[in-house]
Amino acid sequence: MTGLLRRVAPQLLTLLAVLVLVTIFFPGFLSVGVSGDRLVGSPIDVLKRGAPVALLAIGMTLVIATRGIDLSVGAVMAICGASAALAIDQGWGLGAAIPLALAAGLLCGLWNGFLVAVLGIQPIVATLILMVAGRGIAQLITEGQILTFSDPGLAFLGSGTVLGLPAPAWLWIGAGIVAGLVVRRTALGLLIESVGVNLRASRLAGVNSTVLLLTVYMISGLCAALAGLIVTGDIRGADANNAGLWLELDAILAVAIGGTSLLGGRFSILASLIGAMVIQSINTGILLAGFPPEFNLVIKAALVLLILMLQSPRLGDLAAGMSLRRRRADEAAAAPRVLPEVRQ
Amino acid sequence: MNVRRLPLYATIAIFLVAYLLCWLQFPNILSTRVVGNLLTDNAYLGIAAVGMTVVILSGGIDLSVGSVIAFAGVFIAVLLRDTGLHPLPVFALLLGLTTAFGAAQGALIHALAMPAFIVTLAGMFLARGVAYLLTLDSVPIDHPFFETLQKAYWLMPGKGRLTLLGVLMLLCVAGGMLLAHRTRFGTNVFAIGGGQGTARMMGVPIGRTTVLIYAFSGFMAGLAGIAFAIYTAAGYPLATVGVELNAIAAVVIGGTLLSGGSGTVLGTLFGVLTMGLIQTYIVFDGTLSSWWTKIVIGLLLFLFIVLQKGLLRIGQLQRTA
């Protein structure tokens, strides 16, 4: 438990810093009230609005941990939202709409995974294909229009309330807990990390990397499908052009803030989720603090750069190099010529 | 026959076959008017794609291109509206800015040893954010010099117009070809794309070359922004969203390996033209919807990536045999 806390401490501190900063500019930011049977207030709003990015970040964390990246999640959101809206529009009911959307997400993930794991294409290129073509496919499904519907069930997913909290918040928190338990209470998380650290070595060690990669991309597709359902339910319509537009970048950013290296390996879903909340707090905070929203991107860019500098392997090397050099010098002074020279 | 050249031949062959198929259905498509428009309409994309080709040849990627083009348009429009400057010094100022911006990205990529993807992602946010800060509206450009630039064309036989923008793009492609295939800098780019470790051992100045690569991409993005501003006669901060993806797609369809180290600038021109041809065909057909463009481009991307993968396999087999 303390290990986990230590792992997410930087992210929690970042979130705290952002919250404090926003509260300075907008003192009422942290207040939560009760209106009828639901909680209201900016923190609840952050939990709700941050749901799509948080969901995407769960899948993206796993993909990035395998040294991959999934650029297509935004387009997959549009495809899944369009499928659900189409099912409702055709009168198939909610019982068909949600499975259809989830199946579409899984199928998209399977396609990405097939390109990466079976054909061996670089992830960034492989998922670029669906990123470009995906919006076209979504438009094909909606026939270029914004498919609107008035089904209360699907709308509930986007704007309903359960036990005082918005339904989207329950969805991402639930998905995060399930994913976290599955990867950490089984060996799955370890295997994913091993594939990310060294694909060849883990393959030689008997890890079925093909199935693992397929699974990871399918999870990412599934998360995108859930996010697509939320966005579609929220506006009661499937907008093939704008649903999930550029959210893949926010999701990658959330993972980066979460401290998972883009070069694969160790990951933390909890940290990524906190990262998603940091991004949403910034978005909401900039609006509430009265800054014009055009500052949003500049602030985001500055934030990304700052995180990059802190995460940079060079910076780590520099610090490690200094202590190593000092140790080498000490060792050389104490016992010259015992350093092992043979290194391959 | 050189296996490495196959993607280029495949690109040109696909373009010619596609054009032939279009011509069989709509004979009018083979006129200098259509060809002239094809060059003019895709000029800004082609110019940006030349910069992107060099970046991708080095094994990197530049996601900031679309935002830089939008920034360029807004910068020109706002400066011409608010000051009495002539467009030419504004162009020079802009190119200096975008080149410095690109160089800064390259320096960060090298200094921090971070993936180009994430550094240029930050650059993408920054450039678009600064464009928003300048203005949120679409600012029209009504300088007389712009009209001269817009109306500058050479009437080809068949009444097609070879506009200044089209010529600018072709010149950029020619310049890019010289730079990538005939200079020491180009050789260094290919060496880095082939493998940074090996390149360093061969004595390639990695840091300087990386900075120059992204500076070149920034310069080309600025030039593409000027072309786009002339083309639309306006600056709009929300314009050219996602152009970097089109540029990357054009480079890949043009036969350049996305992992770097292999490809041609000439192929990129045909990649851009193929994408333009798809749009032209949809316009000629009239019943097809615009989203087919995206789907067909996605399919072409897939085709080329699988083709390259196959060629790499063949190359490896030949080496081991």
Automatic annotation (TrEMBL), chain A:
CDD domains assigned: TM_PBP1_transp_AraH_like
Segments crossing the lipid bilayer: 12-34, 46-64, 71-88, 94-117, 124-142, 162-183, 204-231, 243-263, 297-316
GO terms assigned for molecular function: transmembrane transporter activity
Protein localization: Cell membrane
Topological type in the membrane: Multi-pass membrane protein
Pfam families: BPD_transp_2
Keywords: Cell membrane, Membrane, Transmembrane, Transmembrane helix
GO cellular component: plasma membrane
Keyword Cytoplasm: no
Tagged with keyword Transmembrane: yes
PANTHER family: ABC TRANSPORTER PERMEASE PROTEIN YPHD-RELATED-RELATED (PTHR32196), GALACTOFURANOSE TRANSPORTER PERMEASE PROTEIN YTFT (PTHR32196:SF19)
Name of this protein: ABC transporter permease
The organism's taxonomic lineage, starting at the top: Bacteria, Pseudomonadati, Pseudomonadota, Alphaproteobacteria, Rhodobacterales
From TrEMBL, chain B:
Keywords: Cell membrane, Membrane, Transmembrane, Transmembrane helix
Annotated GO CC locations: plasma membrane
InterPro entries with a match to the protein in the record: ABC_transp_permease
Recorded superkingdom: Bacteria
Transmembrane domains' residue ranges: 6-26, 47-80, 86-104, 111-134, 162-180, 211-232, 238-258, 265-284, 290-307
Location(s), subcellular: Cell membrane
Protein name from the UniProt record: Sugar ABC transporter permease YjfF
Pfam families xrefs: BPD_transp_2 (PF02653)
Main location: membrane
Listed PANTHER family: ABC TRANSPORTER PERMEASE PROTEIN YPHD-RELATED-RELATED (PTHR32196), INNER MEMBRANE ABC TRANSPORTER PERMEASE PROTEIN YJFF (PTHR32196:SF63)
